[in-house]
Amino acid sequence: MIQMYKNKLNDRNHLIQLFSPVFSIIIAFIVAGIVVWFTGGNPIEAYSVLAKGAFGSLSGIQNTIRYTLPIIMLGISFAVCNKCGYFNIGQEGQMYAAAIAIAAVQKLLGHIPTFPLMLIMIIVAILAGGIVCLIPAIFKFLFGVNEVIVAMLMNYIILLLTNYLLLYSPIAEVGKSTAMSITVKPIVSGIMLLVASTIIILVYGIIAKKSAPGYRLRIVGYNPRFAKASGINTIRLILIVAFLGGAFSGLSVVGEIFGVYHKVYNGFVENLGFYGMTAALIGSKSTIGLVLGALILGSLQSGSVTLSVMTNVPSEIVLVVQGFVMLFATINIVQYFSKSTKKKGAE
Predict the structure, then answer these.
(1) CA–CA distance from 281 to each of 83, 288, 330 (Å)?
(2) SS3 21
(3) Closest of 69, 96, 26 to residue 302, by C-alpha
(4) Which InterPro entries match (predicted)?
(5) C-alpha–C-alpha distance, residues 95 and 243, integer Å
(6) What whole-number distance in Å separates Cα of residue 253 and Cα of residue 94?
(7) Exposed e or buried b for every residue in 143-154, given b needs 16+ CB within 10 A?
């Protein structure tokens, strides 16, 4: 009887986890539609144009996938840290560090064959992102400083350092027509990026839900004291996870540089960290929810250009939708009402 009750409770929790991100997105679109209506636009027309721009043609679908893949990587970067109670808000700094590491390898080893050059660039991007993500964790455990404060400060420091390196360091390209940019040699097809990203998502989902390391992460996140009492070295685990979170940020840059821009320049990762965090919050504890959130955000980015061209609704309304999505995902409305219903039933 007890086992049957536990099974029902687990099934119910799984349904809540799956439905919660969908419900958050629906509410966000409704509220943003009201904002569009108050500003004189037609929300139904705006959303239909957004959908058409994102999925109405082959190029639109390609653009949607192109915007979605880095958001998924950054969503995993945030989610894997968040599982053990480490708030990784320094993703933009990690991405810029990885980008500069890639540019430095291009400058030093650009003459070697493409395949080994690409492998070296991927490794240094992972290392650079991981090390930058480790620094706030080290400050947290050594000096008791909140990781969010350190990460936010490091974002600005690394951004300004990137600007300097692109202009004045030995890796800067002199006499380029494009200011503050460095060309990168390896070029990867979109299909390769899609396949690699799919494999990473599947591996992450399996490890997070079905493996012993994933279980330990959840234990540390839910109850650090219980984790310590169970013999888990929480500090070491959080440091490892912080490095992994930064590594995923570095991988997101690899895809952007190799598959899209083929160069490093100032501002190319702007707001991507915010989108990744939003996707992770939408997904809550669900990998499927994370991917769904990233797809929604990617389609909004892809369709925003069509929106401003074909309607009188400004493309900035996309930012409004994203803000509401993040707000309602953070509140986690479904679980809130679920708990309220349980309390009323108990009374």
Answers:
(1) 11, 12, 6
(2) helix
(3) 69
(4) ABC_transp_permease
(5) 13
(6) 9
(7) eeeebeebbbeb
Apex 332 CA angle, 347 and 234, nearest 5: 100
CB-based contacts of 29, cutoff 8 Å, min separation 6: 47, 321, 324
Amino acid at residue number 91: Q
Lowest mean pLDDT among 44-53, 145-154, 302-311: 302-311
Q: Read off the tokens for 304.
A: 């925003």
Q: How far apart (Å, rounded) are the C-alpha atoms in residues 297 and 24?
A: 13
- CA trace torsion 187, 192, 198, 203 (10° rounding): -80
Domains in the chain: ranges and CATH: 2-346 (1.10.3470)
The CA distance from 72 to 98, in Å, is 17
Cβ contact 130:244 at 8 Å = yes
The burial class, CB within 10 Å (0-12 / 13-18 / 19+), for 134 is: middle
Q: Is the dihedral of CA 298, 96, 165, 117 positive or negative?
A: negative
Average pLDDT over residues 120-126: 94
Q: How far is CA 185 from the centre of its chain?
A: 25
Mean pLDDT along residues 243-266: 88
Nearest Cα to 306, choosing from 30, 60, 34? 60
Classify 142 in phi/psi space as left (phi over 0), alpha (psi -120 to 50) or beta. Answer: alpha
User: What does the block give as tokens for 322?
Assistant: 């994203």
Task: Say how far apart CA 334 and CA 118 lie, in whole Å.
Answer: 44
Q: At what angle do helices 58-82 and 91-109 cross, to 10 degrees?
A: 110
Using CA of residue 6, residue 210, residue 246, residue 173, what is the dihedral sign? negative
- The answer to whether the Cα torsion of 258, 259, 261, 265 is positive or negative is negative
User: Which uninterrupted H or E stretch holds 268?
Assistant: none
133 has pLDDT over 80:
yes
For residues 69 and 226, the answer to whether their CB atoms sit within 8 Å is no
How much is the mean pLDDT over the chain?
82
Percent of the chain at pLDDT > 70 equals 85
